[in-house]
Automatic annotation (TrEMBL):
Pfam families: SCPU
SMART domains cross-referenced by the UniProt entry: SCPU (SM00972)
Domain Spore coat protein U/FanG: 159-286
Source domain of life: Bacteria
Name of protein: Spore coat protein U-like protein
Organism: Roseateles asaccharophilus
Keyword annotations of the record: Capsid protein, Virion
Amino acid sequence: MSFGLVNPGGRAASTGIQYACAPDYSEARLTRYYLLCLYIGRGDQSAGQTGRRLGNYNGAYLRYDLFSDPAHSQLIGAPGSNPVYQLRLLVPPGAYQSARANVHGWVYPGQVVPATHLFMEHGHEGRLRWRYGIKGFPESADCSQGGIAGGSTSFASAGVWAAYDNSCWVSAADLDFGRGPPPLSPVLASTRVSLRCPVGTQWRIGLDKGLHHDGSQRRMAGAGGYLAYQLYQDEARSKPWGNDAASMLSGSSDASGSIRHLTVYGRVPAQPSARVGSYQDSVVLTLYY
């Protein structure tokens, strides 16, 4: 089973196991009613764990599980576990009948791990038990008894794998300097930038000069002309925040890959001759990683 690219939102995948049941070849030519129970044990990365997990063989893990239904409500476990994944197949006399047991996988959301290695699990041992009757499907909780006869077979899995999506996301809120008369003294305001990256990711955030700059000075535009302003990395407003190597803000994601909240500090200098009106600008934020 391949989950493909996984991100903190989780990921679903599905696969199937083909099986075939033998008919009645006797002179009686009877229809057989098969009850089957499918089990899939844990693999090499899940031994001793309360659930399944994929490992990157470098100390990081992704939790996942296997289910019999696309709603991910009925777990598939090893023999002895409950609930049991049961299937039914009616086989007319004279010819084998095949069917598919669907297996649905789910990587749980909310996980942030390094994106540098592939996550895998091998060594799952599967077992298919069956019982059959000739007057209807047998009644059995685990396919160990009931009906006329039965049996079981083991099978191996090709493995489960996933790659963690090496991507980040970022969002920013508007910066509002509020309402007031032409500024006779500096006006201060701030807003927040939030970002999230895989564990260990080095990142930089740049802010461009905006739509209305004059080459060096950021400006808001309005009916009255322009209103100068500046954006900073620090509360003291001593480190302008720009989009070149010297003025970008840099950092790295922590060991949990949690969301980082950054503050953008704005300042409108005194401009007593500014005309009354509404002023605005658009600044492009770029996340480099």
